[in-house]
Write a structure and sequence with these properties.
Blueprint (H helix, E strand, L loop, with lengths): L1 E5 L5 E5 L5 H11 L14 E8 L3 H11 L11 H14 L12 E9 L9 E13 L2 E12 L2 E13 L23 E5 L1 H11 L4 H4 L1 H6 L9 H7 L12 E7 L7 E10 L2 E7 L6 E7 L1
Parallel strand pairs: 2-3
Antiparallel strand pairs: 1-2, 3-5, 4-7, 4-9, 5-6, 6-7, 8-10, 9-12, 10-11, 11-12
Helix pairs in contact: 1-3, 2-4
Length: 295
């Protein structure tokens, strides 16, 4: 349910009374991928989506914890609010006046700032907007900014950077020389990612992007096989340091090559001054699927 209202002169505020249905959003995204006669505008609409008083469903949280291997308890896992904010970001991206189509967009990086643990029983006020449309040698980047408040207190903030693969004025720039593959050091442990695991995460997270759930869907977007969600790997790797993540923390994640399913990947977690350096790497070639820092 949504109703629109104007905030100030320009910003359109879309106030929701419940989380949008992800299946409907992906259907809209698929329709949005059908070429329109009119070209998409090269500017971002000035729009915020809000949802106040959201109560976490413990069954939903339990399904997320099962899908990621994270601990189910009173405090929300660091990455869990991503699942709550994702439909709000999708609602903005599937709009017909958005600069690019949502289907096939790649999650490039993610930064989460948490000020304290959030209890499963606290009502959450969520707002999401999109800013900073910019060119990249591989396409267009945008940042989805999501904030979670309890009352007036900002408890969690996230910047999700999406990449839409297309030609831009930077496309012809000289590419960096790829680093030669190196045999990686022995891992802390290995992690198995298969379609069953990722389908379970898609169900728990509501992210049914066909690049994750179908080999055929992945091929349409240029991947030889279906790929793991970036935020599945960003969540699952936190299991290596669970119980040692401070309440107040910044979790910065860069996604490298996609994890093609099925795969076994190397997990690394190194304690450094002020926190942890984390990585998922290819077990023989050593290139990164994910590099992250907790500070």
């Amino acid at each position: 349910m949504a109703h629109g209202a104007a905030a100030g002169e320009q910003t359109q505020v879309i106030a929701l009374t419940e989380l949008p249905n992800n299946n409907r959003l992906f259907a809209e995204a698929a329709l949005g991928a059908v070429p329109l006669l009119a070209a998409r505008k090269p500017t971002l609409p000035d729009r915020i989506v809000r949802l106040d008083g959201l109560r976490v469903d413990p069954d939903h949280l339990a399904a997320y914890c099962r899908a990621t291997g994270l601990r189910f308890g009173d405090a929300l896992p660091l990455t869990y609010p991503f699942i709550l904010t994702f439909p709000l970001a999708m609602q903005l991206v599937v709009a017909r006046d958005f600069p690019f189509v949502a289907v096939g967009a790649v999650h490039a990086q993610n930064v989460i700032e948490r000020t304290r643990d959030i209890s499963v029983s606290e009502p959450l006020d969520i707002s999401t907007h999109i800013e900073n449309l910019r060119e990249h040698p591989k396409g267009l980047l945008v940042d989805a900014i999501s904030e979670v408040r309890v009352g007036r207190e900002l408890v969690w903030r996230q910047v999700t950077t999406f990449l839409h693969l297309q030609r831009t004025s930077l496309s012809g720039e000289a590419k960096e020389e790829p680093k030669p593959d190196e045999v990686p050091p022995p891992p802390l442990r290995t992690l198995r990612a298969d379609q069953k695991t990722i389908t379970r995460y898609a169900a728990a997270s509501g992210d049914h992007n066909p690049i994750h759930t179908s080999a055929l869907g992945a091929k349409v977007f240029g991947f030889p096989r279906s790929i793991a969600h970036g935020m599945w790997s960003a969540a699952t790797i936190l299991g290596s340091v669970e119980g040692r993540v401070p309440e107040q923390t910044t979790y910065s994640v860069k996604f490298g090559k996609p994890i093609l399913l099925p795969a076994t990947v190397n997990v690394y977690a190194d304690q450094v001054v002020g926190g942890w350096d984390l990585a998922l790497r290819h077990p023989t070639k050593g290139y990164p699927y994910l590099t992250a820092s907790l500070r």
